[in-house]
Write a structure and sequence with these properties.
The complex is a heterodimer of chains A (175) and B (493). Chain A has helices at 5-24, 32-43, 48-58, 62-71, 91-95, 98-109, 154-163, 167-172, and strands spanning 83-88, 122-127, 139-141, 144-146. With 175 residues, chain A is of the alpha+beta class. Chain A has 2 domains: 5-71, no CATH class; 83-169, 3-Layer(aba) Sandwich (Glutaredoxin). In chain A, helix 2 (32-43) packs antiparallel against helix 3. Chain A starts with a helix and ends with a helix. Chain B is built from 20 helices and 14 strands. Chain B has helices at residues 3-8, 26-31, 36-44, 47-57, 69-78, 99-106, 108-122, 136-151, 182-189, 218-230, 232-236, 269-276, 310-315, 334-348, 354-371, 379-393, 397-401, 404-422, 449-453, 480-484; strands at 85-90, 126-131, 156-159, 164-172, 213-217, 246-253, 259-264, 286-291, 297-300, 324-329, 437-439, 459-462, 465-470, 490-492. In chain B, helix 4 (47-57) packs across helix 7, helix 7 (108-122) crosses helix 10 and helix 16 packs antiparallel against helix 18. Classes of the chains: A alpha+beta (175), B alpha/beta (493). The A-B interface holds A 29-34, 36-37, 60, 64, 67-68, 71-75, 89-92, 94-96, 127-136, 143 and B 92-98, 101, 133-136, 171-177, 188-195, 250-254, 258-260, 290, 293, 324, 326, 328, 332, 337, 340-341, 344, 348, 350.
């Protein structure tokens, strides 16, 4: 795949940042999870190439790195949307109708849990429990808590985040 | 509801500072006698005395099992090794529990103080706080607290000129419930997959990096400073004979007052739910309270007067767990809840041992079957047998306790299972395949809205000639008609 100049530059910057992170953890297998967290912050996800870089720097077999990445649910090997919608499926939210909210979101966004919309604007996720049980049911968007949420609130929520999408930013992300 | 009733039955010990001090300013903690206990312990107590005092207080682990903290420390103190570790378990993964989060966010220094004292008692010089990555504020506050404590010399080298060194570091989880299990957590802190390993050897003998390690829960550690400040006798004076002190619970579900509460051990669930919690929402009828999350069980009305302590909860087939209390009313289906928890444990099973990996999957399939009306009478005995096998043969706590929600709901609500199986009916009206929508003739005005909204044309009738009729054989139970009927003329049975 060929990349346009600005993306090429973007990727180079990200790898330079990763390199900086990895010098902290050189030959330190115990820091694997910390390193993966930091790498995911830079790239948004953990592509194969990034995993190889980490494996080499920390002196851990790539198979083990992959094993750890796939074990923990917060690590992702596929790119995520710019807005992460997380439906809390903890018990308190569940008994207050979180299941219906999740279904309605799936229908509205036309994606399944863990997937990203085609335009890359939303990723839909479900969480075990975000620890905001007294505000149940809870939906989080990019870490911001929307409490006592109902399926009726969905269209407005989606519209709000779509509208906030800056057209210039949208163009640079089209790859 | 008056504020007075809400607070009357509570006793704030662990939560004494939460919400009152600025957690990002160490001086506010110090102003509330913070680090005083640690100073006294480090400068005037022998490690053995520290353990004796904790034993005397009767403190037991607040993370679930209720193991006596003093004994845990004693085992690790006896182990001979230059390197030992203290781990604070802040991987509060039980859905419906947020006690540890509130302590870490609201009073982080109490946790640090407890850790330093624990380190001094067992001869450790390094501690880790394992926090789940889903709690970013807790991570931030703990890190800031460590930094501030280090600046004042309360963490680090030669604390209080006692010659005792202790440093603390935060380690992040990455979204795996099983990491709350202590041996899995040890692997995760070391940067590996969070899979548990067999015990023995216990972590107190061979834990983190194979060195003696004490793993205590956030709330347990937050109690430690206070025990030394007010004396073990004060602490032992609260609670019941075998469960001392207070316990923080997270009240959630169909209850009027949700939130964190702290009560002396031994109060009844009835008092928590009806006095502090203000009763059930919308005037509905109480059905059961879930305690202990996916490892615990449910307690029905008949047993609400049992005192809450470790032992009486175990007798009822539930467990203290970390302290999540989820109240359910008559509109909640117990089979559905059991299925919900099984789905959770099955998904979170690390896959290392077969009973847990495969067993929970099979149990979930059976429950799935029951909730869609394909259950068989023998499913109940099959569930019980599977549950017993999984409990006995799983490697770690996750698997061993995974069947609890099923066993517990079967114990108290077997007739609800039977209604699903025999009558193909969900009494609570939750399992959508097992409910019926019917038109209430007296209310129907034959406006025809329901017939038009029905996606499968299951409703027929003549306009202006009530009532309309739902053909049960065609109905897909989507509920669209009920939601749209302007006269509330459609009932879910």
């Amino acid at each position: 795949m060929t990349m346009c100049n600005s993306c090429q530059q973007d990727a180079e910057e990200k790898y330079a940042e990763l390199k900086k992170v990895l010098t902290k953890y050189h030959n330190d297998p115990e820091s694997l999870i910390v390193a993966l967290h930091e790498a995911q912050l830079i790239f948004g996800y953990l592509p194969r190439d990034v995993q190889i870089h980490i494996a080499e720097a920390l002196n851990v077999p790539i198979s083990e790195v992959y094993g750890v990445v796939t074990f923990y649910s917060l690590f992702s090997t596929v790119p995520k949307g710019r807005n992460k919608i997380t439906v809390c499926m903890g018990t308190a939210c569940y008994v207050k109708g979180a299941g219906d909210i999740l279904e309605a979101l799936k229908e509205n966004l036309k994606i399944d849990v863990g997937e990203t919309t085609e335009d890359g604007v939303f990723t839909l996720e479900s969480a075990r429990c975000v620890g905001a049980c007294s505000l149940a049911p809870v939906v989080m968007v990019n870490g911001e808590v929307h409490s006592e949420f109902t399926a009726q609130d969905i269209p407005e929520l989606i519209r709000g985040y779509r509208a906030a999408q800056d057209p210039a930013e949208k163009r640079s992300d089209l790859h | 509801m008056g504020q007075k009733e809400y607070l009357k039955n509570q006793q704030r010990e662990v939560l004494q500072n939460c919400g009152l001090i600025n957690p990002e300013n160490i001086r506010e903690y110090i102003a509330r006698d913070g680090y005083q206990a640690m100073g006294r312990v480090l400068t005037s107590c022998q490690p053995q005395d520290v353990i004796e005092q904790i034993k005397k207080s009767g403190l037991r682990g607040r993370g679930g099992g209720g193991f006596p903290t003093g004994r845990k420390w004693e085992y690790a103190a006896r182990a001979v090794n230059e390197d030992k570790y203290i781990i604070c378990n802040g991987d509060e993964g039980d859905p419906g529990a947020f006690m540890d989060r509130s302590v870490m966010e609201g009073d982080p220094h109490a946790v640090l103080e407890g850790m330093v004292i624990a380190g001094y008692a067992i001869g450790a010089h390094r501690g880790y706080i394992y926090v789940r990555a889903e709690y970013p504020v807790a991570v931030e506050r703990m890190e800031l607290a460590i930094k501030q404590a280090r600046e004042l010399g309360l963490v680090g080298k030669n604390i209080f000129s006692s010659g005792f060194d202790f440093d603390i570091e935060v380690r992040l989880g990455a979204g795996a419930f099983v990491c709350g299990e202590e041996t899995a957590m040890l692997n995760s802190i070391a940067g590996k997959r969070g899979e548990p390993r067999p015990r023995p050897p216990f972590p107190a003998v061979a834990g983190l990096f194979h060195k003696p390690t004490v793993i205590n829960n956030v709330e347990t550690l937050a109690n430690v400073g206070r025990i030394f400040l007010k004396g073990p006798e004060y602490f032992a004076g609260i609670g019941t004979e075998k469960s001392k002190g207070t316990k923080v619970f997270a009240l959630a579900g169909k209850i009027n007052n949700t939130g964190l509460i702290e009560v002396p051990m031994g109060v009844t669930l009835r008092s928590i739910i009806f006095d502090i919690g203000g009763g059930i929402q919308k005037g509905r009828k109480f059905k059961a309270v879930l305690i202990g999350g996916p490892s615990g069980g449910c307690i029905p009305e008949d047993h609400l007067d049992a005192p809450i302590d470790y032992d009486s909860l175990l007798k009822l087939g539930a467990m203290m767990g970390s302290g999540g209390l989820i109240v359910m009313d008559e509109s909640d289906c117990m089979v559905d809840i059991a299925k919900f928890f099984l789905e959770f444990t099955q998904d979170e099973s690390c896959g290392k041992c077969t009973p847990c990996r495969v067993g929970t999957k099979r149990m979930h399939e059976i429950l799935q079957r029951i909730t869609i009306g394909e259950g068989k009478e023998e499913d109940i005995s099959l569930l019980k047998r599977l549950a017993e096998d999984i409990r006995k043969s799983s490697l770690c706590g996750l698997g061993q306790t995974a069947p609890n929600p099923v066993l517990s709901t079967l114990r108290f609500f077997e007739e609800e299972y039977l209604a699903h199986i025999r009558d193909k009916h969900c009494p609570a009206g939750v399992c959508s395949r097992l409910v019926r929508f019917e038109i209430i003739p007296e209310k129907c005005t034959a406006c025809s809205i329901c017939a038009r909204i029905c996606p499968v044309e299951a409703i027929s009738g003549e306009p202006k000639k009530p009532p309309y009729f739902i053909h049960q054989g065609i109905c897909i139970k989507c509920g669209a008609c009920q939601a749209k009927c302007p006269f509330s003329a459609i009932a879910k049975i």
